[in-house]
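Researcher: Structure for this, please.
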Amino acid sequence: MGKLHEECGVFGIYSKNTKPLARLTYYALYALQHRGQESAGIVVNDEGIFRFRRELGLVSEAMPNSEIERLGNGQIAVGHVRYATSGITNRINTQPIVVNHVKGRMALCHNGNLVNSYELRSELEMNGCIFQSTTDTEAISYIITRERINTGSIEQAVNNALDKLHGAYSLVIMSPSKLIAARDEHGFHPLCYGKLEDGSVVFASESCAIEAVGGKLVRDVEPGEIIVVDHNGIRSIKDHCNKVKRSMCVFEYIYFARPDSVLDGASVHEARVQAGRFLAQEHPVDADVVIGVPDSGLDAAVGYSRESGIPYGIGLLKNKYIGRTFIAPGQTERENLVRIKLNAIRSEIEGKRVILVDDSIVRGTTSERLVRIVREAGAKEVHMRITAPPFMNPCYYGIDIDSRDNLIACHHSVEETAKIIGADSLGYISVENVIRIADPTGRKGFCTACFDGKYPTEIPSVTSKNRFEEKISKDWKDRHTVKSSERVPEGEYIEKFED
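Model: Predicted structure, C-alpha cell format:
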C-alpha cells in the first residue's frame, strides 16, 4: 500500500433510438479508467435483450474491438471499471452484475462500500440466498430484487432498498426499459447526469465521462436522490434527500477524480490549485523551484508556486506507456518499474532547492522513492508538501485503508516521517483547510474521517476489507480466480422480459 488505489467508476446511457451504445460506453469507461484498473464491464440492452462482457484488465484489454462489435447497438447500456476496495480480484467479482429474476432482468453498477454489508449478507444467506461473488454489490442486487417482487416498479424497489443500505453507494441500474441512478444520502462519492445533443441521458461517476461521449453536464445527482429515465422522460425521487448531513469524500478532490471533472459544482483542478495555495501559506520554505508529482500533484504545485512566488518547474516526467506497477511480481521489480514510470528532468532540479508537492503519504515507501529520485537528479534540498492531512484512521466508504497498521503517520511524528522518507522538511495541509479547497464557505460538508476519525456513520461491526472472503474457503477462491491465460469470453442473455 505505497499509494492509495482508485475506487470504481460507473456509467449509464439511455437513448430513445437505437445507437452504438457499446462504443459510447467504451469511450466513457476509458475516461473513467483512473477510477479502476482491475476489471471492466459493459451491458447493452437492445429491446430487452441483454448482451454483456465483463473481464479482468484495463478497458482496452477487457473490451477488444471484436467484443465491442458483438455488444453492438441498443437503447440502454451500463458500464463499470473496478478497483477492489472489498472482494478479491477475479472475474466473478467484476461488474456490472446481471440478475435474472421473475420480474425481469437487471444490470447493476456500484461504486462505494456499505458499512452494513456483512449483516445484510448474513441475513440474506440465512433466508436462502446463494452468493456467487464476494462483493457487497451482490447484496445490493439481492435487496433490490427482493423488494421488486413486492412492488409495482423497479424504481419503487430501489427506493425501498435504500432504507436498508447504509454507507457509500453510487448506483447505476438498468432494467429492460429503464435506466436508474441512485446516490447514498451522505453523497460520499460523486454521481452526475448529463445529456447528449439528441436528448440521450447519461449518468457517470464524473463529468469527464459525460464529455467523452459528446454530452454536457446538467447537474449532480443529489445525495439520497433517485433519478429514473424511461420513454416517459426523466423523473426524480427525493424521499431520502436531506435526512443527514452531506459528507462528500474530500479525497475525491485531492486524488481520485480527474482534474477536468466537476464534482458537486466544484472544479477538481481549481480545488487542487487551492490546496497548493493553502500549503504555501501553512508551510512556507525558501526554495528555487516547485515541482508536482504526476498526476494529482501537478495542479497543487501550480497553486503553491502562485501563492509563494517560487517558480514552477516540470521536474518529473511520467511514462504514459508503462503498465501498472502494482502488478509486478516482487518488491525489487516494483521499485524498478517505479523508476521507469517516473523519471527526473535533471536540468530543472540539479543544484536547486526543490519543493516536491504530492497528494498523500500512506506507508511512506513511495515518498521515499520520489525523494531519492529527486536527490539523485542533483537537488540540494528536497522539501515535501502534501495536499492531504496525515492519514490516521481506516476508511469504510471506498478508500483501501482498512487499518492503522501501515499508516506511517500513526507511528511517527512529522519530523520522524521526514527523516524516514529522506526529505529536509515535510508539511501536510491541515484538516481545517482541506475542507475549504472545494468549498470556501465550509458549509457543503465533507467526510474527513480518515484524517480526524469523525465518521458520518456507524463503524462496521466487521471491519476487515476481506470480510466476505473470511466466510469462504481457500479452495473456493482458488477455483474462481482466473489467470490471464485462462480467460474465456462471456456469453449473452437472449431472453426478453418486460419491466
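Researcher: Any notable elements?
Model: The chain has two domains: 8-247, 267-452. The first helix runs from residue 21 to 31.
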